[in-house]
Amino acid sequence: MTDINEIFSSQRLGINHTKDTRSEYQRDFDRIIFSSAFRRLQNKTQVFPLPGSVFVHNRLTHSLEVASVGRSLGSLAGEFIVDRFKEVLKPESLDFYQHNLYNVISSACLCHDIGNPAFGHSGEDAIASYFERNEESLKSRFSEKEWTDFVHFEGNANAIRILTHKQNGKSESALSLTFATMAAIAKYPCESTARNKKFLHRKKFGFFQSEKENFEKIASTTHMIQDGEDPKIYKRHPFVWLVEAADDICYNIIDLEDSHRLGIIDHDKCKDLMMSLIASFDPKGVDKVKSRLDGISDRNEKIAYLRAKSIGNLIRETAKVYETHLDPILEGNLERSLLDLVKIQNEKSAEVLKEIEAFSIEFIYNHHSVVEIENAGYNVMYELLSHFAGPILKTDRSKSEEKAIKLIPTQFIYEEGTDYEKMLGVLDFVSGMTDNYATELYRRIKGIEIGMRR
């Protein structure tokens, strides 16, 4: 079993500690908040198209809410760990679990989606599809592992790159977050060739070949359990489970609230679903909740109140599950998410969450406006990548290809690098775009919109 004293570290890539009134882990949170990569999330689609006359969540507001839930989970987990391990915790560890675990979890939650390209999973699919469709002309230029990175392009791995990669003209090691926070982000701590949907920690992959060495440093320092050498695989870090749970809790409930605001789900249906979920955890408290609802006249405010109660209940139940399963988590043997375990121990809540999930799939994720933007986003991202990816690998470019390269900012150009590094630069540029910027650039290079940019 992993030693609870050894799974956190305030070490950073290439940066020494500096004196500050904040802890190293508080500094992580602030660095993320003030980063341009985080700021760009405000114009990246969560589920519903942006912008609209009715405000719904985008990637930034979603990340802020996940961070809030993560802070609560981290606080509850820290209290439990201090109570259970008080006899073996070192002074530094005692301070960490009492005062900084929640900072690590909230920081990791804050940037859990930072690697997602414009248009979310459609953007990921478009990038992967470009390489699949051009395998004959491109594959021979890369190693097998490099090629697998591309044909299975993954936002989780891209997050590690954004947070650690030094771009041309930028400061050392990007955001340089602590190793504790970086480890907490890695839901799938393996390289792309290790992907295997039979295992929870290998359903996707967590780092590109370009960041493999840095990830090995993070894993070694935070004592992640190695599960394979070639390909490189680790068991999930114990903090990851809390970050994943915070995300699961938020999107299960908040997507439902957004669908209510947009009129996709009937008010009474939405209210009944949330009331049923609350009752499954606290049947004795239902009358009090109903009484409170009677005092609220605004329909959106009613749902907001029920959303808060639902999330509060899920936080408490998830923290209990984490406590119950901490031993297999520390051993690297847990193969179910915390929210799945909540469902297993509470059949009534499982039924309601299953109904919410079924409704979301049928009426939210397959709503015509969502499907439209997914299709449009796929085409936009595919065409942008095809415009830049071909020319970047050529040494003898045509004039039009030279013009295409001039549209790429210099920090993404690696003319002296390998083909893999050159292509990653293009992916850094394209995947970092917001929905609006990607759409605008697509319209301009396709000649749909012509003229001086303001």
TrEMBL record:
<protein>
    <submittedName>
        <fullName>DNTP triphosphohydrolase</fullName>
    </submittedName>
</protein>
<dbReference type="InterPro" id="IPR026875">
    <property type="entry name" value="PHydrolase_assoc_dom"/>
</dbReference>
<dbReference type="InterPro" id="IPR050135">
    <property type="entry name" value="dGTPase-like"/>
</dbReference>
<dbReference type="InterPro" id="IPR003607">
    <property type="entry name" value="HD/PDEase_dom"/>
</dbReference>
<dbReference type="Pfam" id="PF13286">
    <property type="entry name" value="HD_assoc"/>
</dbReference>
<dbReference type="InterPro" id="IPR023293">
    <property type="entry name" value="dGTP_triP_hydro_central_sf"/>
</dbReference>
<dbReference type="InterPro" id="IPR027432">
    <property type="entry name" value="dGTP_triphosphohydrolase_C"/>
</dbReference>
<feature type="domain" description="HD/PDEase">
    <location>
        <begin position="55"/>
        <end position="261"/>
    </location>
</feature>
<dbReference type="GO" id="GO:0008832">
    <property type="term" value="F:dGTPase activity"/>
</dbReference>
<dbReference type="InterPro" id="IPR006261">
    <property type="entry name" value="dGTPase"/>
</dbReference>
<keyword id="KW-0378">Hydrolase</keyword>
<dbReference type="GO" id="GO:0006203">
    <property type="term" value="P:dGTP catabolic process"/>
</dbReference>
